[in-house]
Amino acid sequence: MNSRADISGELETKRQALDARLRGVGRMMVAYSGGTDSAYLAYAAHQVLGGQMLAVIADSPSLSRAHLRDAVDFAGSQGIPLRVIDTHEMEDAAYVRNDSTRCFHCKDELFKVMAEAGGPLGFSAVAYGMNVDDKGDFRPGQRAAAEHHVLAPLAEVGLTKDEIRTLAREAGLRVWDKPASACLSSRIAYGLPVTRETLESIEVSDLEPRLGATHG
What is the CATH number of domain 4-215? Predict the structure, then answer.
C-alpha cells in the first residue's frame, strides 16, 4: 500500500469523513458492479465494518460474463463479502421497451431484490457508488435510488470521480484506473427492444477482437 503522503489534506479529510459516515450507518449492503466507484465503496465499507457489510452484484443478461468474473475476482482478492443475486428486469416490459427510462427500471429491480435479500440477513441499509460528478448527468437510476432510500456515501462526503480513483490507487486497488464500462443494454439504441439474443450478440462481438489478438 502506498503512503498517504500522496493524498492532499482536503482529500484525506474526505476519506476520514467517508469512514465516519460508513461507521455511522453500520450494517449495510453495497450495490456493487466492479467499477471503480462501487469497488472503492465496497472496499472502504469492508475496512470500516468488516463482516457487517455485504457487497451485492446483480447477475443479469446485461452484465457481460467477463465483467462479472472480474468483479467477483476483485472482491475475493480483497476479502470483501459478496453475494451474487439474480435480477429479472428482462421480465419487465418497461425495461425491454428500452426508452430513456430503461436505467430506472434496471436499478428499481436491483434495489427491490437487494431489499428482499437483505431483510432476512439484517441488512436494512443499502448504499451505491454515486459520486459528486454523477449528479450533473442524466441518470434515471438515481431516481430509483432515491425512491428506495439508497444511500450515496461517496457523494455525501463530496468525493469526485478523480478523487475516488486517487484514493483507490493509494489503497493499492487494481481497479483505480479501470475504464468506465456501460452495461450491454446501454449499447442498444433507444427504441429497439432489449432481448437476450441482442445482448449475447453484443458480448460476442466484444470478445472477437481479443480472440483475434490471441490467435492472430
Answer: 3.40.50.620
